[in-house]
Amino acid sequence: MKKHVAVIFGLGILLSSVIAAKADSSFSKDLYFGMQKDSEVIKLQEFLSGEGLYSGPITGNYFSLTMKAVIAFQKREGVTASGYFGPKSRTKADVILGSQIQASEAQAIAETGSTTTTPIPPKTTNDVVNALQSQLDALLQQVVLLQGQLKAQQQTQQSVQALQTQVSQQTQTLQQIQQNTSPAPIPAPIVDTTPKLDFDRQSPTSYILEGSGQSFSWTSSNVSTCTASGDWSGSRPANGTESLSFTKTGSYTYTLTCSNNSGAQVSKTLNVVVNSVALKITSLKINGAENIGQVFNFKKGDTFSLDWTLQQSMANPTCYFANNLVGSGLNGNKSIQAATLPMGSSVAEFRCTNVVGNVISSSIQLNITE
Predict the structure, then answer these.
(1) String of DSSP letters for 67-129
(2) CB-based contact 258:266 (threshold 8 Å)
(3) What is the mean pLDDT of residues 267-288?
(4) 214 near 242, Cβ under 8 Å?
(5) What angle do CA 236, 240, 245 make, to 5 degrees?
(6) Where are the alpha helices (DSSP H) in the chain?
(7) pLDDT by residue (tens digit) across 156-190?
(8) Cβ contact 236:199 at 8 Å
(9) How far is the C-alpha of 165 from the C-alpha of 174, rounded, in Å?
(10) Where does residue 259 rank: exposed (0-12), middle (13-18), buried (19+ CB within 10 A)?
(11) What is the pLDDT of residues 34-43, one digit of tens each?
(12) What global pTM score does this model have?
């Protein structure tokens, strides 16, 4: 008896499945990613689960797991694998559902001999709670997943914002550097405007004899006017030559002052000393003896003295003995080594010259022996 009851109960459940399948033998609308708590999505999830393509919870939410199963179904059935459960995909699924229902009905008739349907037993409170709990668990899993994705997006957005801020700061710094690092201005060439003036004499003092003449020249730059003063006067050119004649002894001063447009000045002075006495030897002695046409005899190892006295009113002349400098001045004394002179009889010249080119000389006869 118990065995029959169990068989009848099983057949009742089978018939109930058949009846429910008839009610759900087709999909009434297109389904797509993002739909939530939708009865058609629940039907789709149950269908895909029965086809072995979906292993997730039955939630009614069309998210990534459902979309993945739809794509697998479309690939299997030769439909464009877009993840969108549209008319073509629905038609394929409806055909499969219809064939399953027919098979179930045939099995029920074979088992019971009747097509009488048995009402589906109402669900108990526990069944409803368990179903809701399953859906809630699935939703919580989706929330956790979405929270992770949102956190990753927020971190990515923060990183992008930090990079944008850094780029903005570096751009501002570069602009400031470019503004503050302008090319250094090329300095204007320095133009020397200092007035310059030069005479053609190395020495500021010249010595000449009475009755002779002399000329001197000057050059200048960066000047506008030149004026003479001293023993000459008047305006002079920036570059010129002056010729002078002297008929009286004495000292003469020639000053030239040049200035530019800014008032800066430069001056040069030339002094001329005019003498009436030419260069003259008043005394020339060898070892104290006057050089008056005699021959002076010395051994090679001897040393003798040379003394002289000159007469002139100009600056000190310069004197030479045997082409060797012996001194300068109107009076002088020099020790001479005989070894520095030629052996035998010779004539040595004593010669003096002054600043104006006057030359005076005297010959000394020598005989140097061993």
Answers:
(1) HHHHHHHHHHHTS--SS-B-HHHHHHHHHHHHHHHHHHHHHHHHHHS-----PPPPPPHHHHH
(2) yes
(3) 85
(4) no
(5) 90
(6) 2-23, 39-50, 64-77, 87-112, 125-180
(7) 888 888 889 988 888 888 888 777 766 667 887 88
(8) no
(9) 14
(10) middle
(11) 999 999 999 9
(12) 0.36
